[in-house]
Amino acid sequence: MQSYYEINISKNGQFVFATAERSATSESSAKKLFKLLKEKFPESEGYKVEVTYWECAGHFVSHRLLEEEIK
């Protein structure tokens, strides 16, 4: 399972940008990035920095299984 933190930046209620999945994959990296973004995008200038934690699951699919399905 791949888990990551997504950090969203908005200004005056309008979306500005969000971090990529690979930007913060641990709590410690998310905290560092959050602190940096809060400094660069202050609330006093209308910015809002929000964090969402995502958990994603996937599984390996055998190419043989897929080839059998196509026949």
Please describe the structure with a list of short key phrases separated by commas or semicolons:
71 residues; alpha+beta; 3-stranded antiparallel beta sheet; elongated
Sum this structure up briefly.
By secondary structure, the chain is of the alpha+beta class. The chain has 2 helices and 3 strands; from the N terminus they run E-E-H-E-H. The longest helix is centred in the middle third of the chain and has 14 residues, at 27-40.
Description of the molecule:
The protein is of the alpha+beta class and 71 residues long. The protein has one domain. The protein is 31% helix and 35% strand. It has two helices and three strands. It has helices at 27-40, 63-70; strands spanning 2-11, 14-18, 47-56. A three-stranded antiparallel beta sheet has the order 2-1-3, with helices on one face. The longest helix is centred in the middle third of the chain and has 14 residues, at 27-40. The two termini are 31 Å apart. The mean pLDDT is 92.
